[in-house]
Amino acid sequence: MKMKSLHRTVLLSLLAVAGSAAFASPVFAQDAAGCARQFEVAQRLDMESFRDYDQETWLASHDDRAVTVFASGAKRIGIDAIAQVMASHFANREAKWSWTELYRVVDGCHSAVILYDTIYEIPRIGFRQHALTSVSYTHDGNKWLSIADQGTPLP
Hints:
Layout: H1 2-17, H2 26-29, H3 32-51, H4 55-60, E1 62-69, E2 75-77, H5 79-92, E3 96-107, E4 111-122, E5 127-139, E6 144-153
Parallel strand pairs: 1-6
Antiparallel strand pairs: 1-2, 3-4, 4-5, 5-6
């Protein structure tokens, strides 16, 4: 965990050096191009922190009101419920998560959605799930947060 905190600290420091301190500024947030750049960082952090088992960063990238609908049809509402069901992913650290972006829409500084082709595997138990996963984001005036994701299984 210390390495993940160090990784996050280094990443945030690099972003600040690159001038991204403005990402938290409401003035920056009102610029559509700036919001699109900010979104690129936020969505990448969301996906990579899940892949890299960085639970703290992953949870911080979600709105408290987030909803997840799994490919199985199960749903969890609220970040606490999502965190509870995903706890084993972060604790066991054995799943492999990969994705390919298929489609993206960023609506200024309001909302965004990305459609991914995803694969979630746990080789030890022979589990492999191929799905289309749609992730929606909202902008709270300062930053982008994941607010909804839904997976649809593929053969």
